[in-house]
Amino acid sequence: xxxxxxxxxxxxxxxxxxxxxxxxxxxxxxxxxxxxxxxxxxxxxxxxxxxxxxxxxxxxxxxxxxxxxxxxxxxxxxxxxxxxxxxxxxxxxxxxxxxxxxxxxxxxxxxxxxxxxxxxxxxxxxxxxxxxxxxxxxxxxxxxxxxxxxxxxxxxxxxxxxxxxxxxxxxxxxxxxxxxxxxxxxxxxxxxxxxxxxxxxxxxxxxxxxxxxxxxxxxxxxxxxxxxxxxxxxxxxxxxxxxxxxxxxxxxxxxxxxxxxxxxxxxxxxxxxxxxxxxxxxxxx
Length: 285
Fold this sequence. Notes:
- By secondary structure, this protein is an all-alpha fold.
- It has helices spanning about 40-60, 70-80, 85-115, 120-135, 135-145, 150-175, 180-185, 190-225, 235-245, 250-275; strands at about 5, 10, 20-25.
- A three-stranded antiparallel β-sheet has the order 1-2-3, with no helix packed on it.
- Helix 2 packs across helix 10 and helix 3 (about 85-115) crosses helix 9.
């Protein structure tokens, strides 16, 4: 006797019942990403620390070039106990927060003016793209002449490093909204205000949050530079002072602090992305 084939199912001879049918259709392989790796956010950092520790313990890394992890930890504890690390960290965080706030405000405002108006784009986008091509380091001499070497110059420099990524990604988010949403808003007869608040701004939110990730990093990069320009406090000033006296371990402590600040801030923005964009289905989900 022959096997019975029904609707893609095969049954043995004499057993052609619905309950005993076997599905022989090929299984479809999922093309998306696999399940998240446990503790993936910190695994790369742990691996880097392991390599650093192993290299220092075996002598492959010269302590005069890069201090050992245990030396850096001991130095960091000593700096925290005598108050120098905490005081300088507070100053650096204050500068970074002020520059980030002003930069985000300027970037969002200019992106809205340029992204929602052809006239605004004609007047603003060109000069901003010119500024984008000029690094902040090249502007430092001019900023020092304009604002001196005080806190105002430092905050302005950080803000300039922040507003460019905010502007670029927010503007791109505004202009990348699907045309079908615009047609739907016209069909529903939404006025300009409701169109902007209900369609445009939510549609540009992913671009803004991506720009915010770059902006946080940009604020720290600018902070490193400005704190070493005639500074009297801050992590960068502490590192510059350590360079003068050849204290490699103090310099590495400062680098670790900058790294921890940047990594923590980036993880915070990514968490904000996941919470704010729950309506969006992506490859990461």
